[in-house]
Amino acid sequence: MKTIAVIPARYEASRFPGKLMQILGDKTVIATTYQNVVETELFDEVFVATDSEIIFNEIKNIGGNAVMTGSHETGSDRIAEAVENIDCDIVVNVQGDEPFLKTEPLKQLIAVFKDDQEEKISLASLKIRLHEKEEIENPNNVKVITDNQGFALYFSRSVIPYPRETSVKTEYFKHIGVYAFRKRALLNFAKLKMMPLEIAEKIECIRYLEYGMKIKMIETDFVGVGIDVPEDLEKAREILKRNH
Q1: Orientation of helix 183-191 relative to helix 75-83, angle to 10°
Q2: Which end of the chain is least crowded, N or C, by CB within 10 Å?
Q3: Angle CA(127)–CA(131)–CA(135) in degrees, nearest 5?
């Protein structure tokens, strides 16, 4: 089973333009993410997929693999274009703005497909438990609810589930935007039109649910830093200092 990682990388992020080219330690955010993914040694190949010559050149300059793509609304659409002519079975989408992703959660995602002999699962992703009220209510944190077998029921920027019954302890999970796809499912996904719920929430994996597909969610306790806004970059710099 040939497994590759692809990091979708857009220069013009709406909330923090140019964030992937910001310096984190002695490297850019995108270079840090790329090298951390390579160092897991889980993948046959690692690529960055981008529509930015700046990012393309950055990865080439560090000796990495980069693929130029057209302009896309979502990372999954970008990856689908990038992998069309790459021979592989499983494609893991690692976010370019999650520089500190660890080996174990990626290993767990890949294992979902190794264990799925009947090939019923076409997409797997990660979730982490949320405890703090402000984290639960933060619309930058996408929440996910699952059925009793760990398949996603819905993703939202709103608080889900809504705690109307206060006598019961409600659990909350944040979706971490790392996906593992079967290649053919990814290519099919990219042909599907965006539907109203995905457009409203701006959460690409809702498209899967709207078309009736299954997403297996794996719980992880790994806490990374997704760099969405300038304050997140400062947090990431602090973590890097502590770890060195």
Answers
A1: 120
A2: C
A3: 80
